[in-house]
Amino acid sequence: MCALSDPPEPRRVSPGEYPAWDQALALLNRDLAVTLPQLEPLQLLALPSYDADEPENVYVAMANGEWQGNYLDPTSQDTLASALASVADAAQETVMELQWQAWPLCPEHGLGMHPRENPEEQLSWWCAGPRPPRGPAHIHAPVGALRS
């Protein structure tokens, strides 16, 4: 029996438990492998709720089990697009906070990019850097399709 003050133990999520998040994480790990090849793939970790009636909380974590930020919104599993948006935000938060660097970086501007839906309704990495002459910010690549 554990005391109320004892934190619950995280567990690595098995493949197939959360299919939409698995798919989304596979895309994010492709971008991670291209942009930060020294890092091992990210993983999903689950933490039981303190309340037995509540579902477990799932986080995007580094290979060593560390994570940063909020858990994934359970309703984001409804579609691949919402799962990808949720996992991309969580992955970015974990990588940036634990590696102390912006991720991913726009190769053109050296600025951190953010996931954003583009006009074709596809989640893409968006860069705030302008394109000449005085052009607007730009979409760099779809999430999961970054190149070195």
From TrEMBL:
Protein name as catalogued: Uncharacterized protein
